[in-house]
Design the sequence.
């Protein structure tokens, strides 16, 4: 093995996904020298196997829904079919364009991109093939991968992960989706829009079970209306594969037949065989443990993104990357506020939230107030014919600490809600803001007007 010819760099980053490349881009901008190691493609899960391709599929699905529903608006149209090859090439073209842009950014910032499989070999170095790359600091950003249940074998053919689902060259006639988190609900939504018979199996009592219960219930109702079958509070017992497809059995004896089973029961850290344990990095079930500065127990090593315990979201990876680069450059950035990270499930309808659920707020503050504004009173929602609601969670006579929204396109509204919870705004202060009419954003204003005791287009 030979040492990096140019001597140690400031930062060696293992993994070029959202967390890793954000760290690299910000660090380079601040004048640090950076080697970024990636075994596959710059952009990682989000760009190649996650956020971007799935949202492209969801957009194509929305177009199919618009055609199905166009008669409601007096526009007569017939969906002739889904050309999945074309859908996939549209999806791939979006990914390629963003990939080219990202590669260009990394190049122009003078970041050294090292293509290959990296392995931590000391607190300050990573081996890639027969090269050792040494840095003042090492950032672990190796991300996550789909996990399965004990005894449930993924064959990538009939029992598949979201990676396989994105590569399908057909719309399944029917599918069982195991797990109703974001991945399960988004694929259930896409496949249903494309005409598949879809059944969701979820162990907890609700779809998107970590969301405000009223949001989960609205999604359950909307999915039922769309013909998506749901087994909630249902335990998976096993699956048999045959030439025709799969037979899924639940613990109560129910059997469900379908063409395929999508396993969407969460994602686990990618940390095995990467030298972390040998170098003495503390982990918990494979997750790399970090302090509030994102430092591991080894002072020269940090870890960010899906690899550390906590929310597994690309935008959290971006924020952690920026924070870490600035802190390593000595800028003393403000800490990340993990309480106010927006979350969006991009199904039809969407579920968006920021801050605390009413249950979490009650635990923290004792007493809470909630206010729900039904989108039935919102002009734009009626124009779009979308059902849903905004639910606010607030401390009595205090700030708004949670905002929960369901409806089409509401993911675009959650950024305003993030300002509200981050600045600990009082309901009366938000009620002062004038929202443009008619927009979906007015529903946020209306909910706050109601919470401030002066409802406009709603009853209190
Ligand atoms: P998840 O952890 O969000 O949801 C998995 C679901 O599977 C849970 O509701 C869980 O109760 C259920 N489950 C677990 N074991 C089960 C069993 N034996 N039988 C039935 N149900 C069972 O994980 P998911 O959806 O796979 O997503 C992985 C990660 O990726 C999450 O952190 C998610 O937030 C993130 N992601 C975010 C997206 C977004 O922001 N739009 C999109 C896709 C993924």
Sequence:
């Amino acid at each position: 093995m030979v040492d990096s010819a140019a001597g140690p760099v400031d930062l060696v980053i293992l993994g070029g996904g959202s967390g890793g490349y954000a760290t690299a881009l910000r660090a380079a901008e601040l004048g640090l020298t950076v080697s970024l190691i990636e075994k596959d493609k710059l952009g990682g899960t989000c760009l190649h196997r996650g956020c971007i391709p799935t949202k492209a599929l969801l957009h194509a699905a929305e177009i199919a829904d618009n055609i199905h529903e166009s008669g409601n608006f007096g526009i007569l149209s017939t969906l002739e079919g889904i050309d999945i090859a074309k859908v996939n090439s549209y999806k791939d073209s979006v990914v390629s364009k963003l990939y080219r842009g990202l590669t260009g950014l990394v190049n122009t910032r003078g970041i050294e991109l090292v293509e290959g499989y990296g392995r931590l070999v000391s607190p300050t170095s990573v081996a890639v093939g027969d090269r050792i790359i040494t840095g003042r600091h090492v950032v672990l950003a190796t991300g996550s991968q789909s996990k399965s249940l004990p005894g449930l074998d993924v064959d990538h053919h009939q029992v598949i992960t979201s990676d396989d689902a994105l590569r399908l060259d057909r719309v399944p006639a029917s599918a069982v989706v195991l797990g109703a988190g974001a991945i399960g609900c988004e694929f259930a939504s896409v496949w249903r829009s494309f005409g598949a018979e879809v059944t969701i199996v979820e162990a907890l009592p609700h779809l998107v079970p970590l969301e405000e219960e009223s949001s989960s219930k609205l999604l359950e109702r909307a999915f039922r209306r769309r013909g998506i079958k749901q087994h909630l509070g249902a335990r998976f017992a096993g699956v048999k594969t045959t030439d025709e497809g799969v037979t899924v059995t639940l613990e109560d004896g129910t059997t469900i037949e379908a063409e395929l089973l999508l396993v969407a029961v969460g994602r686990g850290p990618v940390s095995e065989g990467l030298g972390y344990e040998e170098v003495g990095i503390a982990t918990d079930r494979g997750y790399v443990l970090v302090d509030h500065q994102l430092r591991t127990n080894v002072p020269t090593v940090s870890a960010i993104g899906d690899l550390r315990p906590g929310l597994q979201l690309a935008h959290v990876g971006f924020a952690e990357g920026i924070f870490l680069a600035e802190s390593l450059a000595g800028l003393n950035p403000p800490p990340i506020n993990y309480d106010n990270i927006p979350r969006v499930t991009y199904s039809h309808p969407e579920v968006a939230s920021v801050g605390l659920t009413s249950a979490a707020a009650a635990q923290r503050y004792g007493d809470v107030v909630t206010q729900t504004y039904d989108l039935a009173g919102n002009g734009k929602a009626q124009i779009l014919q979308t059902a849903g609601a905004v639910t606010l969670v607030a401390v009595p006579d205090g700030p708004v600490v949670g905002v929960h929204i369901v409806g089409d396109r509401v993911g675009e509204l959650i950024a305003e809600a993030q300002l509200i919870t981050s600045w600990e705004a009082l309901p009366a202060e938000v009620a002062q803001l004038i929202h443009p009419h008619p927009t979906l954003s007015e529903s946020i204003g209306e909910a706050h007007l109601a919470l401030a005791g002066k409802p406009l287009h709603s009853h209190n």
About this structure: The chain has 13 helices and 25 strands. The first strand starts at residue 2 and ends at 3. The two ends are 71 Å apart (CA to CA).
